[in-house]
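To assess whether ligand presence alters the predicted conformation, the chain was also submitted together with inosinic acid. Input:
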Amino acid sequence: MKNIKNDIERVLVSEEEIDAIVTRIAKQIDEDYAANDKKLVLVCILKGSLVFMGDLMKKITVPVEIDCMKVSSYGVGTETTGQIHIALDLLRPDIASCDLLIIEDIIDSGITLSHLTKYLKLKGAKSVRTCTLLDKPSRRRVEFTPDYCGTEIPDEFVIGYGLDYAEMYRALPFVGVLKPEVYTK
Ligand code: IMP
Ligand code: MG
C-alpha cells in the first residue's frame, strides 16, 4: 500500500501547534461573542475546514449552532480559477438573527472569502465574520483580512488537517508541505 507520508516534504504546523492555535482562537471567540443577544452560527466551508471546525467548536464555550456550505474555486490543480461556485448554500429562514462566523481552512487569493462574506451579508445575515486556520498573505489577488487567523504561512502548497490535494491527505493530523513532484509530475 502507498505510504502517503513519503509525499510530505516537511511538517509546517505540528499537531501541538495546531492545538495551541485552536485554543487561542476559541478563547477570542468566547470573549467576542459573550454578549447574550448573539446567535453565533459557525459556518464550516466543506470539505477543507471540517477538521478545524470540529476541533474549534469543542473548545468554544459560548452557545453555538453549526451549519455548512460547500464552495469550490479549485479544480484538480493548485491554482484558483478565480471564480467560485456555491455547491451547497446556507438555507436558514432565521438568517436575519444570525451572527455568522465563516470557518475556513486557508486563505490564498482571498477570492472565496471576500465573495462569500458579501454574499452572506446580501442574504441578510445580522453579522458576518471570518476565521481561518492558515493564511498565505503573499498570494492575495483581492484585498481581504480575516477577523481570526491561526497562522500566516509562506507561499507553498500545503495539505493535511482537512486540506487536500486531489482529495488526498485530508486525514493527516498536521499541516505539511507537499513535495512539488507530487503535483508537477
Ligand atoms: P482562495 O479563494 O484563493 O483564497 O482559496 C481558498 C481555497 O483554496 C481554500 O479553501 C482551499 O480549498 C484552497 N487552497 C488554497 N491554498 C491551498 C493549499 O495550499 N492547500 C490546499 N488547498 C488550498
Ligand atoms: Mg477550502
